[in-house]
Design a protein that fits this description.
By secondary structure, this protein is of the alpha/beta class. The protein is 42% helix and 13% strand. The chain binds the ligand Nc1ncnc2c1ncn2[C@@H]1O[C@H](COP(=O)(O)OP(=O)(O)OC[C@H]2O[C@H](OP(=O)(O)O)[C@H](O)[C@@H]2O)[C@@H](O)[C@H]1O. The ligand Nc1ncnc2c1ncn2[C@@H]1O[C@H](COP(=O)(O)OP(=O)(O)OC[C@H]2O[C@H](OP(=O)(O)O)[C@H](O)[C@@H]2O)[C@@H](O)[C@H]1O binds next to strand 2, helix 7 and strand 6. It catalyses: ADP-alpha-D-ribose 1''-phosphate + H2O = ADP-D-ribose + phosphate. Residues 142-262 form the Macro domain.
Length: 290
Amino acid sequence: MSGKGKALVQMKLSFGKRVAGGSALGGQDQPKKQRLDGEKEINPSKDDLTSKSPSRDNQGLDKGNEVKGSSSKEDDANTINTNNPPKSPGSPTSNPSSTSNPSPSQLPLPKATTTLPPARRIRLINKTGDIFHSAPPKTLLIHACNTIGSWGAGIAKAFRKQYPDAYAIYRAHCMRSVPQHLVGTALLIAPRADAARQHYIGCVFTSKGHGQRRDKPPEILRATGPAMRDLLRQAVRDGGVGEMRMCRINSGLFAVPWHETKLVIEELELGEGEVPGERGPVRIVVYSPA
Ligand SMILES: Nc1ncnc2c1ncn2[C@@H]1O[C@H](COP(=O)(O)OP(=O)(O)OC[C@H]2O[C@H](OP(=O)(O)O)[C@H](O)[C@@H]2O)[C@@H](O)[C@H]1O
């Protein structure tokens, strides 16, 4: 009996110590622990009550992350996200509380900090030449596709000729899918183990139809962002993609001016699981024929 009692007291003591060590989750249980543990525990529990440590800890962590990824312009753009109105002294939210007497129920509350992890972007690098030329193994070759299952013209025809296996996979994918569901998505086709060139093919479904029935430029542009995001997600999941190349997608038979597609791609904000690597932008080399 007395042994069990001791053990219980020890368990409670050690739990009390853990709480005092920083976790605020046990806040409601603390008065009981103070009684059990004696005066030594009173001070730490006060700290717990006043510090509301989780939000502070999170701020610290987030700041750490921001510093890690702060080398690019994209990150600067992101820090703008943190310029939430409450920070400015003259903001509407801060005025009412400063003119009336400070309300104790409001003041101690730490401001909700919605610190987002820095967004990552795509950096397009221009190169003149043939997209297929000397592409090393693991290269991802990206082109825009219709959802009908045709690589009948333009660069798609060249893809069909050079990668007949990929074409079969693309076509089967289209055949078993509803066009409306495909548009705005992507299909990453990994190379077969025995393929001569170990290239990935990235199909971004930017238009439901093709030829005369191609979608209107605004629709194509609307589908381009989500389709690129989807492709990158799949590439991250696959884990085997190396260099990334694309043609000036949408700019030929789909008749969308390249600078408009380019803007959509460069403005994409990518999150976790959508970008390979730890930091920095995603580099995609854009090939245009000489
Ligand atoms: N070897 C090469 N290396 C680098 N760049 C190359 C190149 N060869 C051509 N280009 C350039 O690549 C850009 C895109 O031009 P494209 O007209 O091909 O593609 P798009 O994205 O506007 O349209 C897609 C629809 O075209 C097809 O036609 P079908 O529907 O099958 O009839 C599909 O299946 C889709 O549906 C243009 O800047 C071309 O100069």
